[in-house]
Write a structure and sequence with these properties.
2 helices; TATA-Binding Protein; alpha+beta; globular; 34% strand
């Protein structure tokens, strides 16, 4: 099965704070690897659902002014669902600052 990848970013100060918050929020539900460079979130496959045939993986990195996300999935449904989940959670965590939206890269 060929993986699909979506890359995007959000202009934000202290992107590392958002990565840490997201990982704490999801730590009980998903496998998280957090290090000095960012995080890896593994969204598990769902055995009974053909739209989620393999684990999807999100790589999150932060710079001084940006948060970058690379999401790899195996169906468009899976890619859209997890991209939406990451985007909506980051937006909710940034509500006090006026919100935050991921902007997908265009190719």
């Amino acid at each position: 099965m060929t993986p699909l990848t979506r890359n995007g970013s959000a202009e934000v100060q202290n992107g590392r704070r958002y990565i840490d918050t997201l990982c704490r929020h999801w730590a009980r539900k998903f496998a998280i690897q957090l290090d000095d460079e960012g995080a890896k979130v593994v969204f598990p496959k769902e055995d009974d659902d053909p739209d989620y045939p393999e684990d999807a993986i999100a790589i999150l990195r932060a710079t001084e002014s940006r948060l970058d996300v690379q999401l790899t999935a195996f169906t468009l449904t899976q890619l859209d669902a997890y991209w939406g989940a990451i985007d909506s959670h980051l937006d909710r965590f940034a509500a006090r600052e006026g919100g935050l939206r991921l902007v997908p890269e265009t190719t």
